[in-house]
Amino acid sequence: MRSFLLIAALLVATGAMAQQKVQSGPGAILRGLDKVNGQTVDVEMQNGQAGEIFGLDVALADCRYPAENPTGDAFAYLTIWEKGKSDQLFDGWMIATSPALNALDHSRYDVWVIRCITPSGD
């Protein structure tokens, strides 16, 4: 019964999120982590731009956020591959508040979304 209630709560929450209006920001703030030395770096990227975060190439297709709450949860579509290689390590949506939900699987590096850049420039 407890599992049923948990599943029902998740479905209701998912339905509410699906009906929420979102806007695309012009870009996103991403954070990279080198797990070996603990170094982090924040990178600002524009939609349609690709850049390097440590030994990874990262392309940002889009960053979306709730229209009613620009500082709310960001969703970014990222494609990530190792520098000089063609095989994608990650291709999909990352959620800022739940990066482990759909995460990059790499032994040394990690990349996640911090927030979208909003038109108001915050």
TrEMBL record:
Residues annotated as signal peptide: 1-18
- Domain of life assignment: Bacteria
For this UniProt record, give its keywords in alphabetical order, as a comma-separated list: Signal
What name does UniProt use for this protein?
DUF2155 domain-containing protein
Organism, per UniProt?
Ruegeria denitrificans
Q: Which InterPro entries match?
A: DUF2155
